[in-house]
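Regression test attached.
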Amino acid sequence: MSPPSAPQPQTTAIVLVAAATDEGTAAALLRWDETTILRRLLDQLATLAIARVHVLTRPAFADAVDAELAAFAGVPAELHVTADVAADLRRIADIAARRGDTAPGTLVIVNGDVVTHREALAGLLADPRVTTGVLSTGGRTGRPFTFRIRSRRGRVVGAGSPYHYCHHTTGGFLGVLKIAPSERRLVATACEELAPLAADPPASWLEELEHKEIRWRLSLARTQLLEGDAVPRGPHDGEASLPRVDPSESIDVAVLDAVELPEERLAELRRRLAAGREDASALVLVGMVRAGAPIGNSYLRELFWARPLSEADVAHAREEILLYDEDKVLLDSAVKGTDGFFTTFFVSPYSRYIARWAARRGLTPNQVTTFSLVLGILSAAAFATGERWGLIAGAVLLQLAFTFDCVDGQLARYTRQFSKLGAWLDSVFDRAKEYVVFAGLAIGASRTGDPVWVLAGCALMLQTIRHTFDFSFAAAAHQTISATQPPPVAQSWDSLTKPPHPLAPRPAGAATRAPDGAPLPWPQRIAAGALATWRALDRLGPTIWLKRIVAFPIGERFAAISITAAIWSAHTTFVVLLAWGGFAGLYALAGRLLRSIAR
Amino acid sequence: MSPLAIYRDDGPLAALLGRLGAAIPLWPAALVAIGLLPAAVAVVLEGDGASEGLAAACAAWLVLLGGVSRGRPLDDRLRWMVPSLLRLGEYGTIIWLCAIAGGAAPAGAFALLAVAAFRQYDLVYRLRTRGATPPPWTAAVSLGWEGRIVLTWLLLAADLLPGGLYVAAGVLAAVLAGESIHSWTSSLRVDAPAVYEDEEDEAA
């Protein structure tokens, strides 16, 4: 079953067919079942409201691609023969500027050899919230050969290409780029600026290309070492062996550099480098980032993705993709990854099936949101009786309300029915539910002779203050990001200083130094050290859950209200909310103060 | 206006006091914190036994400094603390004034704060989902954080708690909810792009 997607009739796709196999044929024309990778992709795009396709390909592939397009009747497709990446960029600029076009729509740039699920493409193309964005992964998919990106607060603020280095990366760009109509002009300008540079790369670009090859080789060597069958590079007598390494530790570059890679890995490295140099999509992304365009992320999540460049890659991908249950992955990824402990382990495991049931019944997220609010008001009414049965009934109703509160978001993500009103209703009704329950509890307590209005008011104050800290900190961070001027595209690196050579030994104590290498003043040094410890704790599995519980998110709060009210009294509920929430607030405040000082 | 300036939820009085801000070279967060200090000390030492005069003086000091902070630029590294400190001042003072009045007054405080909270969440969520803010007249009608402190003190002085607060909260709730519904029904026809944000770092 494929959930419905909102139609976007004006979308134009630019499909890049530039990567080659070892035999010198187009990788996108490798066979896939009865068809080819390119046709498979075009068929997927045709179901995603793409109105027009432009295929950009090299002269050597032109005839074969033309024959392939002749057999494709999905949407009108036009073939453009481009000699190199610079020509790709110029043609993309032309299409983006859409000279003579009265109603330009969304533009999609995609590598023609991408093999993934339709749902992964739909996650980017059919999500109205991501008007301009990339398909990306925070995981290991495609490593090390995908170009890396750096995101902050969901926005792509740094990107790599064959010629561009990206520092402090957070993910990988998966070769699909969506551009809102409002950004097409910017893309055209960026491509025109990039084209002459790509035609005749400056020295720093070529240097970065060399470094990229070294980094990729070191990364392959690391994999080789961890798999335990590495041998040292260069002449040796068969006795020499490399040290066993711990996967969690970083390995000295000299050790990695000494690893000899088997021929098939070296062949892959050569293929990937060649394909990377033909990849106009990565350059467009860099151009957009450096021009300051707001670019969002659509994550691959647990779906399959690959760019096969050989028959062996295809065979492997076909085996792999069969292991994925698209509907299950879709349903699983409808659950937010950042939910709290209670929500993740006590609600989401079954609420996702309610979401799927609701999707099949054709219910909308807003209907579920409203139903949840009604349950919340009923819960407050039950609490307001002040009787024991009322407190127990209220506790149960509140948990039901919370379940449906999770269902609405999961339903929206599962069926991709996002709306601005829906987002507003969901947020406002969540707050309304919580505070109306506070009122219900306080009314109930007053009726039994224990007025707790001051405590109720304080609980409301504390929760509002905690939210306001979240909102304001995010707003200030966005302000900082927008105010940062990215470097021009001609510069190959995007950190403050040029990155060191990949084979240079790494300096110790990086956290206590400013990006330009100077020692930091002491308050920043202490804050940076504390932050490093803080983040190291995150990497220890269970602490992340402990931290999420301590943060007292909505699931934990509603559970605490239900349990304390049902067993004890409204008075106990408010004391627990104030104590736990107060601790959580101070904990979050401390972390943010550290981050503000360390900056 | 920057989002942080919108999140402040200032009323007409703060807008007026903000003109003094240019003369005082302090970070806005520091100004609000200094404004909160006397009230915090008085609450700890006197609690709900504080005299109405003392409470009035503390509230006036808070309104003055919080209002002045409106005129300071929000560009320092602790600027994100300002809206929360203002909430602490507003909510804390209103609860305190009503606790001093005693009896059923704190229930009135809860009613007014619930409406203030709706206003403030609406400011945030409307900006996020639609990139829009409520029209300026709503800031005047809802009085802003400082106006609601003054209103509560006036009702306390006039011995109109909690009835006066119920009336104020009821009227305000009707006006603000009405404006919200009206703005949504008229906005569904015009679609403005909004910056999408996954609430990654937020404890929902």
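Expected vs. actual: identical. Chain A touches chain B through 60 residues (CB under 8 Å).
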